[in-house]
Amino acid sequence: MIFRQLFRNQDTTDLKNPSPWFKSLFGYQAASGEKVTVESSLGVPTVYRCINILANSVAMLPFQTFKKTAKGRERDKAHQVSFVLERRPNPYQAHLNLNI
């Protein structure tokens, strides 16, 4: 979501009045007046567990490399990145460690 906002054509802003996406990088001011950041929200067990469940689910999805062909696309097992993403990124990690 942040990346879409970063690379979209937008009006420029100055440092006195930054864009909302820039402010979101450093946290939000809650209605109670407390500043909520990524780090502080991960201190809440429910938030941490929800993010953990989502991250583990995404990590189970396969990473595959494809190449464009005249018919559309086809799997490219010969690509050098294919081995790193699908099997073993380095001698110390399995592919699941890379995804997480």
TrEMBL record:
Highest taxon, organism lineage = Bacteria
Protein name (database record): Portal protein
In which organism is this protein found? Bacillus thuringiensis DB27
Annotated InterPro entries? Phage/GTA_portal
